[in-house]
Amino acid sequence: MNYETRVTADGSEPFESDLRGVDETQRSAMRKRIIIAGIILAVLAAIAFGLFAKYGSTGLAAGDEEAQLPVVTVVAPGRTTVEGTIGATGTLAARRELPIGVVGEGGRVVSVPVEAGQWVRAGQVLASIDRSVQSQQVQSAAAQIDVARADAQLAQANLERAQKLVERGFVSQADIDRLTATRDAARARVQVTQAQYRELGARNARLNIVAPAAGLLLERNVDPGAVVSPGSGVLFRIAKGGEMELLARVGEGELGQLSVGVQAEVVPVGTDKTFTGQVWQLAPTINPQDRQGTARIALSYAPELRPGGFANATIRSGTVVAPLLPESAVLSDDEGSFVYIVGNEDKIVRRPIVVGSVTPDGIVIEDGLRGTERVVLRAGGFLNAGETIKPVLQKD
Fold first, then answer.
1. Is the model's pLDDT at 159 over the cut of 50?
2. Model's pTM, two decimal places?
3. Domain named CusB-like beta-barrel: which ranges (predicted)?
């Protein structure tokens, strides 16, 4: 019986039994598969040997280890001259508000010819009070003046007649003195009644509630028929000249950077209009509760500026020279604002900073940076202090 024997390199015959009963084509295909498998195993063994020889027992090589470091974009901000601004919020109010109440004895209001929102002139009647009783008193005082004048004229005539008779001895000097005193008293009574008449006239004039100055009528708190008195409180409020102001609340540190006369831009809530004013007064005191002071910003009249409303202000505080960073580079947590800078050996270092004003070009860093540091531009939230990175400087 004939059969073919295949001998391997080590002299064994591993395939002899497997190939029995198999035709030549099948035996040839099987041999090819075995050869291919052997080649693949040899290649894998060679790769494993090479890796072991390259890295040994210490892991990645130094060059590849550097390749595995995170690539982080950094920026050297330098120092930039920035127009200093201070943001503040506050309440709108009349710059000079005039509260108006009853200055006379009061009474029943008969007419109120004005409405809130109207412009009034100085001396214009805002409300009239019934004066029927006072009018009768004025008439009585006018009659008393006539009586006093008549008495004074009679006393003067009696004195003149007596002076003509004193030379003939019919009237004594004592009678002349008495008649002179009577004449003087009558004249004095005329002046008294005239003063009383003027007083009543002045009292009646005070029954009209008038505007002490020209301006915008802000409030009307009385209607016809109401009974008012000096204790009725404020009946009208006027913004003198229609001038307004913003009572801007700023921190005590920022308050020290401001001065009277600097410009400010005010945007009332509910509108996109911007109004330009200027600081005309800085508060001499600081609120001990919130450590803030008030900067009073004068504004010209505009319908959108309603006293009691809320507004935002941007106040110019001069120029500063400081580093300017994009918003993405500035981080914050419970300890305050900070940035990550690249230190020695390209390790991340946390640097506390003091943030200043926000400009269209970035955030002003008032303290904490010189401007020569390499600051992490983005992805700071994914880094930790002490971590080694591969910095890439951003070019302008």
1. yes
2. 0.55
3. 248-317
